[in-house]
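input
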Amino acid sequence: MISDNYLDSMIRAVRRSKTDAVAGEITDLILEARADMIGAGVSAEKAENEEDPMVKGAIRSFVRWKFGLEAPGAESERRDYLVQVDNIRRRG
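output
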């Protein structure tokens, strides 16, 4: 489940207006990020915690990376995401 506030914050992170299409794509990316984090060893409970600022930061980096694949900063967002996930995983 993704709360409306969480979804809205991710839409703002990619600097888009909320439309059904944008909301749908960002929802898919949030779910993909959570699945990726779980696959990397982060607990499902942690990956789905919308209140944890480190998790939110990692998911925001993932969304920016995947939403803006052609953007100049996409590679930087990918690196940030990987470091953030590793830090979350290590901290338990």
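quick obs: The CA atoms of residues 48 and 62 lie 14 Å apart.
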